[in-house]
Specification:
The chain has 165 residues and is mainly alpha-helical. It is 72% helix and 0% strand. It has six helices and no strands. The N and C termini lie close together (5 Å).
Length: 165
């Protein structure tokens, strides 16, 4: 029972984190919009780098990217909370029932990991050369969140056993 409660609490913690991220991105829209904007414009990368042809200077693309990130975060938030509720409902059920309830949490955690890996570390850091910027570099935070969500995923994927603590 303790390991099941741990899985629920860890998933809920990820859900809380994403809830606050969505809240911050919607109530303080401009702060993180500026981050996205500068990464896409590549205006703080190394001077004269040969990748500047990738830069996107149109506000349309800045808003499109930012809204897609917020949408991704919102979907992840909803799935985390839905998954936590599903696990809570299966808490006292059989090992098979609890394992079956992990479907939504695994989807939620996968989406979370993909956001940090694809949107931030691949597209932002590598395609738009965010790693070259001292001002608009979110690699450390992205890596930290990829690892945190990944650890929760690994714990979540541990199979249930009847009579487990």
């Amino acid at each position: 029972m303790i390991t099941r409660v741990a899985k629920i609490l860890l998933l809920a913690a990820i859900g809380l984190f994403y809830s606050l991220v969505v809240l911050n991105n919607t109530t303080d829209f401009n702060s993180n919009y500026q981050f996205v904007r500068h990464v896409l414009m590549m205006d703080t990368t190394f001077p004269g780098n040969n990748g500047m042809w990738r830069a996107m200077n149109s506000p349309f693309w800045h808003l499109t990217f930012y809204f897609s990130i917020i949408g991704w975060e919102t979907l992840t938030t909803i799935l985390c909370w839905w998954g936590a509720i599903s696990l809570l409902r299966a808490l006292r059920g059989s090992a098979g029932a609890f394992d079956a309830a992990k479907r939504i949490p695994v989807i939620a955690l996968t989406l979370g990991m993909l956001m940090w890996m694809v949107a931030f570390l691949t597209v932002g850091a590598e395609w738009f050369l965010m790693w070259q910027s001292h001002l608009w570099n979110g690699q450390e935070a992205a890596f930290r969140m990829f690892v945190v969500v990944g650890v929760v995923m690994l714990i979540m994927l541990q199979p249930e056993r009847e009579g487990q603590a």
